[in-house]
Every structure is written in C-alpha cells, then in structure tokens.
C-alpha cells in the first residue's frame, strides 16, 4: 500500500483520484519523451564502470595514466548506452544514484532515467513485470538484453508543486497496479485517510481470503 498511494496536501478531498500504473514520488533525472510502448531496464548499481574490482587498490602514477583512466570510463559508459539504445531500452529505473557521465550519455542516446528507487519500489516493479535487475558489466557486453519490462506509458506528473514520474507497466500476473492519489487540506488528514483505507483493504483481503473446507 505505501508504494501504491501518494498523499497530496493542500487540495480538497474531492480532488483525489485513481490512476493506472504506479507513481514514483521523484522527478526524472533525464526525461526523453517517446510515443507508444517502450522497454525499461531495472538496475541496482552505478552504470559508470569501476576501474577495479571491489577491495582492489588502483594506483595511478602519472597525470597521463589518470586521464587515460577517465577516457576509458567515458568510452565504456558511452558503449553501454549505445548497447541499451540498440536493444530498444528507453527507460532506466535505478536503485542507485547515477553519476554525471551516465546522465550525459542517457540524454545523448534518448534514454530516460529515474534514480534512487527504494528497495520496496524495485521489488514491486519486479513483481509486476517479472523481470530482475540487469547487471551491466558482467559476461558478454554485446549480448542481447532480455531483462526488459514493457512500459505502456512513461510521463511526468505534477502533484501541486511536486514533480513525479507516472509509469504504466504490462503486467505478467493477475495484479494490475493502480495508484491512489489521496488529497486533503493538510498532511495529518491525509495520514488519517490513508490509514483508514489501508485498514479497509486489509479487511477486504481477509474477507475474500480462500477458506479450505
């Protein structure tokens, strides 16, 4: 329930509504408008490649080596974005905050990016779509990307003064997600309404629970 409702203070209760899909309470880091269905990828780690494995010390002896290292990182990042583009990936949903070089190449290659998703949001999207997070720098970098989710729409959503992300997914299960936009004059009233609704949904779950006879 916390991932499937958004509380909006400063509006009358009558402004509340139900939207298809899910609403992420954060803005796009990169937004590239596109029409029709698109492919989305879930990632949990920074897409800027590391120079060494975790726990391994990397020593740079000169300015030339340092600049060469930066060029290598930039080239690998661009190659990854080209690979995503060639696999029709138009949206990245990231658990991690991405670095500026990733944001630059995402803009360049027309890939929208949403950062800093919670583990609960990632788990919900995985449940809806049936896909697991993609690991970018393991195995064959040129292989076809199969861990993509089908997105029916992806657009900004303005809730009073807060910019959010509104996404519709093609669900692989019976669960068809919808998000409740719960409006009220102040936060306290919204919290009371949200709590009452959650309790009502819990009661309905218990009421319609299958009983073994």
Automatic annotation (TrEMBL):
It comes from the Eukaryota. Coiled coil: none annotated. Transmembrane segments: none annotated. InterPro entries: BBS10, GroEL-like_apical_dom_sf, TCP-1-like_intermed_sf. GO terms for biological process: chaperone-mediated protein complex assembly. This is BBS10 protein. It comes from Cinclus mexicanus (American dipper). The gene is Bbs10.
């Amino acid at each position: 329930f916390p991932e499937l409702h958004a509380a909006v203070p400063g509006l009358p209760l009558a402004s509340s509504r139900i939207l298809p899909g899910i609403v992420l309470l954060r803005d796009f880091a990169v937004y590239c408008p596109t029409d029709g269905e698109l492919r989305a990828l879930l990632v949990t780690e920074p897409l800027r490649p590391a120079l060494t494995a975790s726990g391994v010390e990397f020593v740079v002896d000169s300015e030339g080596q340092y600049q060469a290292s930066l060029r290598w990182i930039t080239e690998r990042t661009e190659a990854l974005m080209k690979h995503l583009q060639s696999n029709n990936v138009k949206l990245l949903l990231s658990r991690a905050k991405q670095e500026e070089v990733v944001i630059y190449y995402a803009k360049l290659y027309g890939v929208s990016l949403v950062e800093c998703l919670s583990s609960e949001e990632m788990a919900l999207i995985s449940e809806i779509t049936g896909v697991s997070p993609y690991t970018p720098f393991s195995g064959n970098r040129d292989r076809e990307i199969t861990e993509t989710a089908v997105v029916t729409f992806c657009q900004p959503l303005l809730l009073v003064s807060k910019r959010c992300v509104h996404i519709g997914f093609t669900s692989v299960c019976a669960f068809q997600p919808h998000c409740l936009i719960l409006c009220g004059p102040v936060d306290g009233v919204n919290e009371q309404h949200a709590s009452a609704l959650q309790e009502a949904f819990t009661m309905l779950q218990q009421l319609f629970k299958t009983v073994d006879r």
